């Protein structure tokens, strides 16, 4: 069995790593990850991984003073998911277990038996592993359960065996015809970049990319950026309701998460 040498938090300085991609996974993949050396990155299928996402059913809920721990199962395994409810910013004070996390609003509707979509990072502490979440949201459409599972399988097979022959042929034809790197089948598109999620804005619509750029080019702030400020900076290009809808979509897809309240957001690729 893999153990965490020395019992230190192996991932607390991972915010500077090159690979900021949001990687869909199964819990079995997280359980099988070998603990990295001190401050080292996590690897899945030979690829460096920081931000992860998965869907599962809540099996237990443990309410603590500064966080909530959900035990989540997806049919391949089970893992604890920590939601930091306040007073424990990453980069600020540590919790009683030495782990930092991202503040977020705890949804009281998340109870035992409910399906949730989890966005976060795999952490190791005292020989145990858990997911420190950026966001945990209820699954309202059960089609998402099957979709997320298939997405994780697709990305795993693409990483270990390469894209299907039909996609390789199509990608080659597009390269020959001179299509740019924003093509769906290029390194920044759905095959190479998991749909453009995470560390770059390729595959995004113009307004989605603009919202992310506003956040990423703003001065670092543990409280994130106020939504009102984002609307102000994009006022000459997009309407307020368009920006609001885009932010909601980016949150639901794990690109952003709420920080101190529902009016402040931060990019998951800027988490430290």
| Major pleated sheet | 5 strands, mixed, barrel
Question: Helix content range of the residues, please?
Answer: 25-40%
Distance separating the two termini: 28 Å
SS element count, helices: 6
Q: Structural class, from helix and strand content?
A: alpha+beta
Helix-strand topology string: EHEEEEEEEHHHEHHEE
The overall pLDDT, averaged over residues, is 76
Radius of gyration: 19 Å
Q: List the uncertain runs.
A: 1-18, 87-100, 178-199
Q: What is the number of beta strands?
A: 11
Largest sheet: spatial strand order: 4-5-6-8-7
Strand content: 15-25%
Global outline: globular
Could you describe the 3D structure shown?
This protein has 272 residues and is α+β, with helices and mostly antiparallel strands. The protein has six helices and eleven strands. The chain has helices at residues 27-32, 143-161, 165-176, 206-216, 227-233, 240-252; strands spanning 22-24, 42-44, 47-49, 51-63, 67-73, 78-84, 115-125, 128-138, 225-226, 256-258, 264-267. The chain has a five-stranded mixed beta barrel. A three-stranded antiparallel sheet has the order 9-11-10. Strand 2 (42-44) and strand 3 form a beta hairpin. The longest helix has 19 residues, at 143-161. The protein is globular. The two termini are 28 Å apart.
Topology of helices and strands:
Elements (H helix, E strand, L loop, with lengths): L21 E3 L2 H6 L9 E3 L2 E3 L1 E13 L3 E7 L4 E7 L30 E11 L2 E11 L4 H19 L3 H12 L29 H11 L8 E2 H7 L6 H13 L3 E3 L5 E4 L5
Parallel strand pairs: 1-4, 6-8
Antiparallel strand pairs: 2-3, 4-5, 4-7, 5-6, 7-8, 9-11, 10-11
